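Record type: monomer structure entry
Structure origin: computed from sequence
Chain ID: A
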Amino acid sequence: MNALERGQLGVMRAHALILGVIILAVAFVAEAILRTAVELPPGVATIPVLLLIAYPVLAAPGRRYRAWGYRIDAEELHIAQGVWSRIETVVPLARVQHIDVSQGPIERHFGVCRLVLHTAGTMHSRVVLPGLSRETAEAIRDEVRARIRQDAL
């Protein structure tokens, strides 16, 4: 399996940090409200929250990043992910109907993008492969597009 680009680890860390900051801000507000109603020592809400978000913000992104992998062969795209539950997705290239290469502002900052494959069917018809360089995503997109045209003939 091919690993994701290193920039994806930065994206995962940034997303975790943003979520952690939001949770911590809510804890600060909750503590401020509690301290006006009841006399409590400082940090009664924020310290436990800091301890609870330490793993998701500091350790989890690296583990999630290392759990991702992908491989493309003549007929299928294989994607593996998951730390606690391992998920392996196989996308038959003949079933791909539409392909997108997308990139949000955080991904743009770290130099990675997502390849989004839309397949025939309704269940799991959208498969996302994050953490690719633009060149790799476009190369896979062009390869899948060529196979779609070839199968249509």
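Annotation 1: The chain has a mean pLDDT of 91.
Annotation 2: The beta strands are 69-72, 76-81, 87-92, 96-102, 113-119, 126-132.
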